[in-house]
Amino acid sequence: MVVITLTSCPAKLRGDLTRWLFEIDTGVYVGNLSARVRDGIWQRICDNIGSGRAVMTYAAANEQKLDFRICGSEWIPTDHDGIKLVKRMFPSESDSKYKAGSKNVIRHKTHLEQRKRKGDDTPDYTVIDIETTGIKTDERIIELGALRIRSGKETGSFSALVKCGKPVPKEIMKLTGITDELLESEGIEPDRAIQLFTEFCGNDTLVGHNISFDIGFLQRLCNETGRTFLRNRTIDTIRIAKRKTDIADGYSLASICGHFGIEIKTQHRAIEDCKLTYRIFEKLKEIEGE
Fold first, then answer.
1. For residue 100, what is the DSSP state?
2. How far is residue 158 from each of residues 56, 190, 200, measured CA to CA in Å?
3. Residue 67 and residue 120 in one domain
4. pLDDT tens, 64-122?
5. 35-50 pLDDT tens trace
6. pTM > 0.85: yes or no
7. Domain co-membership, 126 together with 65
């Protein structure tokens, strides 16, 4: 049994779900789906959710007998000693729930006000991207990429292949060019990889394309290696693009690049996708008048 709840989502998406599921109440869908169809529907939801929120719950062979996914929310799934819990990330300034109260919030707002007084209207940030063995929650990271941006310019990069402890599926090998042999010869252990990655990102704002997907995998890897998860502010280029553009072919990385006339030489490798996402984000900032 699969249960999906949608909040503030496009009507088109809600209508689309009725092809596979029963809508038993406004925004609440239930049905029996195969794992392949379930994962495909979830990806479709994440790609078309706009500014809304979605939660999917389904039966799983674990201690809790269930699993869940969340998209478009400050709440994200987290694994705690094999138990799936939900963690609330630190809110961004644009969040309607961003209110004075805790010392962290006050300190964060003060920091932003100081930056504005200095005339820093182009904040520094780091673009991130990962490659994985698949989109399911039990898949593994096989590559990490990060691109440091200062005053709109590339100033540094990080890239690492990650040993995943399982065979890379043939379709992923074909898509990325990352093979078991490549991971064995050039990959580094997960705990070392996430250490270097988090040190490179520091406290920067993190920009990504469908970044909730990346954050979910990164958080699980942090949990597995006993590392404190990045609490950085995040920005999703898909959500901005959906708000600021109208692209008939959808909002994949390739579609948005085509919309802006950005040439794609290589895709589906972490650092190359970071570079594409960086160029997209700078174009979107121009539209927003930042």
1. S
2. 33, 15, 7
3. no
4. 788 888 887 666 776 655 566 776 655 555 454 445 455 555 655 565 555 444 433 45
5. 888 888 888 888 887 7
6. no
7. no
Full DSSP string of 21-66 = SEEEETTEEEE---HHHHHHHHHHHHHH-TT-EEEEEEE-SSTTSE
Q: Are residues 127 and 55 in the same domain?
A: no
| DSSP code string of 222-273 | HHHTT-PPP---EEEHHHHHHHH---TT-SSHHHHHHHHT---S--SSHHHH
Residue with tokens 């490659």: 131
Domain containing 42 equals: 2-73
Question: Same domain, yes or no, for 122 and 195?
Answer: yes
- In the structure, how many helices (H) and strands (E) does the chain have? 10, 12
Q: Average pLDDT for residues 258-276, to the nearest whole number?
A: 94
Give the integer Cα–Cα distance in Å for 18 and 29.
Answer: 8
At residue 286, the 3 state secondary structure works out as: helix
* Residue whose pair of structure tokens reads 């990271």 in the numeric block: 141
Choice among 96-100, 116-120, 225-229, 280-284 with the minimum mean pLDDT: 116-120
> Band of the pLDDT at 12, cuts 50, 70, 90?
confident
